[in-house]
């Protein structure tokens, strides 16, 4: 068995493979499991990845290209050359083809579409016709047409003819002659039924989604049902495609990766880290850093406004990192929890008051516990006045931060923004500024500054 790490070292040392070594490397690349070759491509630059794809056999190169993220596929286009790319593009499933087209400039996408034959262009056009973010954009339009008046034998014969051309044959939608969805059945039921039986006798009530439904929401409620696929219908109830389990998993993984990235104050890379250019990594982070740097000026303004208070009691400056850190962490915990609950459908925008009330009480309990500890420790070291200031501030900061952190993602959802964008980075800054205002106001009142 070929050592993929050894292959990686060879390719790294010599990206321009000499002709006399091409056959040797090609044979070596055909030996490892396909997952190892995919990992090798994901860890490589576009130039080196293109070399690997060219050295692979046609079947394995198509498998590897299909396994890559759409953004990574787009990066490889220039390195691969038109002939290879057109071949890979034609072999993709229509939904994967559309994902790649979404990553490309309009003129290149149009050129790619012209390379398809009429039938493939029409099928791809069906998926392209639905708006981005809809489940219609992620479905497979290649579905066997099984009519309710067909027999089991007729159905099985039809499946044998179209099995290579459709996305799945394990979950089968049943339609009327005018393509209205009437039920679903499974290949297992067909195999175990009498050949003369009608498929209408074997069908169950269908679980389905509308083509214009939100892709992430649809995928999240579909996955826990533990079914292999479900029909997608248009506004008239006609069958237009199927959503498979693996496509739903991809949708949820993409959404979770995006939320995790934005919660950490950067944009998602959308492809493996080592194959992402330095420019793209910088671009994914710089905007957020600039936004946070500007918003952090609020904290500087607060400190400037209470400069006299700090000068009168320098000891107050020692606790600023503790208070701002506690407030930011409390708000981030609440925001992360509620953002996840929104994604799973456990919380809806209309639940904003319930969430606010719940997080208010959680924040009060957390603040009471942390405040009590802060009061005791600060009083023992710095005196009773400082203990009261620290204990009271921790209580109020935790209460405010938890409430704001819980509500902000819901507000974002309600106005059509990404909840993850409104959560951790902005909440940290807001908690810092408001927490310091509360801190200095309490200090001035308690200590008479």
TrEMBL record:
One Pfam assignment: MgtE_N
Domain CBS per the UniProt entry, residue ranges: 139-201, 202-258
Compartment(s) of residence: Cell membrane; Membrane
SMART domains reported for this sequence: MgtE_N
Signal sequence range: none
GO cellular component: plasma membrane
Transmembrane segments: 286-304, 310-330, 362-382, 388-412, 424-442
Metal-binding keyword on record: yes
Membrane topology of the entry: Multi-pass membrane protein
InterPro entries linked to this entry: CBS_dom (IPR000644), CBS_dom_sf (IPR046342), Mg_transptr_MgtE_intracell_dom (IPR006668), MgtE_N_sf (IPR038076), MgtE_transporter (IPR006669), SLC41_membr_dom (IPR006667), SLC41_membr_dom_sf (IPR036739)
Domain of life of the source: Bacteria
GO molecular function: magnesium ion transmembrane transporter activity; metal ion binding
Keywords: CBS domain, Cell membrane, Magnesium, Membrane, Metal-binding, Transmembrane, Transmembrane helix, Transport
Principal cellular location given in the protein's record: membrane
CDD domains linked to this entry: CBS_pair_Mg_transporter
Family membership noted in the UniProt record: Belongs to the SLC41A transporter family.
Function as written in the Swiss-Prot or TrEMBL entry: Acts as a magnesium transporter.
Subunit structure: Homodimer.
Protein name per UniProt: Magnesium transporter MgtE
Species the sequence originates in: Corynebacterium comes
